[in-house]
Every structure is written in C-alpha cells, then in structure tokens.
Amino acid sequence: VDLPSFDTGRQNRLRFWSLVTYLPWLFLQVVLANLHVAYLVLRPSAMHPQIIRVKTRLSGDLAKTTLGNSITLTPGTITMDIQDDELIVHALSEKVARELANGQMERRVARIFQKTE
C-alpha cells in the first residue's frame, strides 16, 4: 500500500505484514499498561508523573504520528507534542518512561514504514 508522504515527494511504503503483527502487539501493550495503571491507582506512592523527551529516528510525518498515537493509546502515557526528532510525552511513572526510552515501540513502527523513491 502506497501512502503520500507529508514531508517529501517520496512515498511511504506500508509493510502490510508488519502492520498486521504490530496491531496485536499494541493491543497487548495496552492491556499490560492498563494493569500497570490499576496498580498505580492502588499504590499511589509508586506514581511519579514526569514529562520526558523521547528521541526518534523515524523520518516521515506519518511514521512519527503513528508512534505518537500509539504512545497516547497506551494507558499511562500521552504524547503532548512532536518536535522534529523528539516526542514530548507525559508518563505516569518511571517504569513507563523507561519502557518508552528502550525504543521497542519505535522499532516496531519503523518496520511498518519504508521509504521508496
């Protein structure tokens, strides 16, 4: 599937199989994050809200938006802004912030998109 890119004359090539495998993985992350937020509600002392900057190597606006929306869909996080190669994210706890910093979600989103001439 070819989608127009918002930032260049190139096309974003959507890797269908990567998208198909990403969606169940994201659903699992949402379920796990729900459990973590429930834990935080029961133990408010474990809650350490913070605003973090998450660096990204994603190049297209659509890929960055997909990452930002995936972060926002995950309970306990919200993408507040996307600035160049950084996402500004509010995280409810240090655990959530560390998980975002490890880059697993970004790597999975990167697999969905590839640039073509």
Automatic annotation (TrEMBL):
Keywords: Cell membrane, Membrane, Transmembrane, Transmembrane helix. The chain crosses the membrane at residues 22-42. PANTHER family: NA(+)/H(+) ANTIPORTER SUBUNIT E1, NA(+)_H(+) ANTIPORTER SUBUNIT E1. It is found in: Cell membrane. One of its GO terms (cellular component) is plasma membrane. Pfam families: MNHE. This is Cation transporter. Its main location: membrane. InterPro entries: Cation_antiport_E. One of its GO terms (molecular function) is monoatomic cation transmembrane transporter activity. The lineage of its organism: unclassified sequences, metagenomes, ecological metagenomes.
